[in-house]
Design a protein that fits this description.
193 residues, alpha/beta, Nucleotidyltransferase, domain 5, 2 domains, five-stranded mixed β-sheet, 7 helices, 10 strands, 31% helix, 23% strand, globular
Length: 193
């Protein structure tokens, strides 16, 4: 099974077989094709051996999320395989019990469960809650001033690793039916309105 998430600044991909991670890569959304090619080469696997796809659905960067979904749709069409979509926030939340995932939404906001975009100043979180993700890193000072805990920036808990998506994928079907979770309208729609 091939999994990837491109919604944040750190795009991840993983090749998983029978619950075992055969390979994992981190990079950018634009480098996803190269990362997948490298994963297959290192694992000694061909694209014909991919039986299913799992793709991160966001929320996150509009463009990067669309890159991942477009790649998933094209690959699924070419290989004739089913796929499943998994929220980037859900993948982050699965790293540790009791964490609160936040994805940087730019414009002074973070994406949180819902998904919805909110100012980190407007979050009402219990003191001592552990905040993770790109939003937690960007707004560390605000969150820590509110009594939250944020692991060091280089802690792997901040990255929505594609291997986590595999464990959360439950419903496989046509990849073109997988919808992105944006959390707010794209910038182009906001400007048009």
């Amino acid at each position: 099974m091939l999994a990837f998430d491109t919604a944040t600044d750190v795009a991840t991909s993983a090749l998983v077989a029978d619950g075992r991670v055969l390979g994992e890569r981190s990079g950018t959304a634009r480098g996803l094709l190269d990362d997948v090619h490298s994963l297959l080469a290192v694992a000694g696997t061909t694209q014909d051996e991919i039986g299913a796809l799992v793709v991160g659905t966001g929320p996150g960067s509009f463009t990067s999320t669309r890159i991942g979904l477009a790649f998933a749709r094209g690959l699924a069409l070419g290989l004739g395989v089913p796929g499943a979509g998994v929220s980037t926030l859900d993948a982050l939340a699965s790293t540790r019990d009791g964490v609160f995932p936040l994805v940087d939404a730019r414009r002074g906001e973070v994406f949180v469960e819902g998904p919805r975009a909110v100012s980190p100043d407007d979050l009402e979180l219990p003191s001592g809650v552990v905040c993770i993700g790109s939003g937690a890193i960007r707004y560390r000072a605000t969150l820590e001033d509110a009594g939250c805990l944020v692991p060091p920036d280089d802690d792997a808990v901040h990255v929505a690793h594609a291997r986590l998506h595999v464990a959360l994928a439950t419903s496989f079907g046509p990849v073109d039916a997988i919808e992105p979770l944006y959390g707010r309208a794209p910038d182009a729609e906001a400007k048009r309105a």
